[in-house]
Amino acid sequence: MPLLDTPFAQLDLVRQPPRRDDPLQAFDAADEYLLNATHEAGIANHARVLVLNDTFGALSISLAQHAVVSSSGDSYLGALGLRDNLKRNGLPEDSVRFSPASEHIVGPFDTVLIRIPKTLALLEEQLIRLQGQLAPGAKVIAGGMIKHLPRAAGELLERYIGDVHASLAVKKARLLHVTVGERPPAVSPYPSRYRLEHPAIELLNHANVFCREGLDIGTRAFLPHLPGGLGNARVADLGCGNGVLAIASALANPDAQYTLVDESYMAVQSAAENWRATLGERPVTVRAADGLAGQPENALDVVLCNPPFHQQQVVGDFIAWRMFQQARDALVAGGSLWIVGNRHLGYHAKLKKLFRGVEQIAATPKFVVLKARK
């Protein structure tokens, strides 16, 4: 893999989760452009720098030996990549202070570098929280690959931070330079909420939760077919989002024990708040994690999963396939993985390679609900 070579550092970086012969690299032209522009603008020794949505640490680690760097993002895998890439490049873990996007950032900051995230609601929430945290004369630069840089991103920067000047394109990347100005304090529109009829619950959704304005159609197809009669089974909601699958299952299975995991900190925050609102003090484990990595083998009876088909901007079934493998390892013999997926993704054939038996539980014109038994 090529090294990230900028005026700040030469770094050897890898993506998370690890993948043999990974065709993708852990940085792109937008990272290079942001770092080169920061160097040209000048950065004072011990300047306080905030990096938002650093994919696997490319920006934060490059600046770690030149400034006091804080990083914030919503990806557990991104945080894991930051930690492992610091070690890979011979830097101590505390060289960069990481805060999950579920926590508020505390400045003041002299320089802010922003990778525009896929979900603009996350960017909006981050910009609202950034108000009041900028030092006098602060520099704010946002960037991304042009194909992932919508006009609305610049409009959000204008609304909450200051006037925006777009750079020329370099290697299909573009920067948005922000002149910090006076803006009225904003009240965040997040979290949002919506209600379900079956089960009759209200769900809260922080800014980066998938389908935060309403139930996604895959989950809607899955809910009527969740397994019942589980007794005191140990159940995991893998990629839990706002926790709706686990909560609906828990309402129907009062003695079952639940673990909810997601790689989004805001999803985990939403799921924990929704569980408490619906189920009170009923015991539960809710954590941000790399799926079921680290879960003991033979520790679960049932896994529920509505798998994603992308990681950040990268579309593919690698993450889903990995989740299926993790579920198989964590399940007891005879345990079952229940999933919903688009028909065209062919999960039935993939699951047959990992599990003893695969059964179609239900189908709609677009989705199938499958049960795979270990």
From TrEMBL:
EC numbers, comma separated: 2.1.1.174
Keywords for the protein's UniProt record, in alphabetical order: Cytoplasm, Methyltransferase, rRNA processing, S-adenosyl-L-methionine, Transferase
GO cellular component: cytoplasm
Classification via PANTHER family: RIBOSOMAL RNA LARGE SUBUNIT METHYLTRANSFERASE G, RIBOSOMAL RNA SMALL SUBUNIT METHYLTRANSFERASE C
Substrates-to-products reaction catalysed: guanosine(1835) in 23S rRNA + S-adenosyl-L-methionine = N(2)-methylguanosine(1835) in 23S rRNA + S-adenosyl-L-homocysteine + H(+)
Primary location class: cytoplasm
Record family assignment: Belongs to the methyltransferase superfamily. RlmG family.
Function: Specifically methylates the guanine in position 1835 (m2G1835) of 23S rRNA.
Domain Methyltransferase small: 201-371
Pfam families noted in UniProt: MTS (PF05175), RLMG_N (PF26049)
First-level EC class: transferase
Top-rank lineage group of the source organism: Bacteria
GO terms, molecular function: 23S rRNA (guanine(1835)-N(2))-methyltransferase activity; nucleic acid binding
Domain RlmG N-terminal: 2-180
Protein's cellular compartments: Cytoplasm
Matching Gene3D superfamilies: Vaccinia Virus protein VP39
Alphabetized HAMAP family for the sequence: 23SrRNA_methyltr_G
CDD domains tied to this protein: AdoMet_MTases
Descriptive protein name: Ribosomal RNA large subunit methyltransferase G
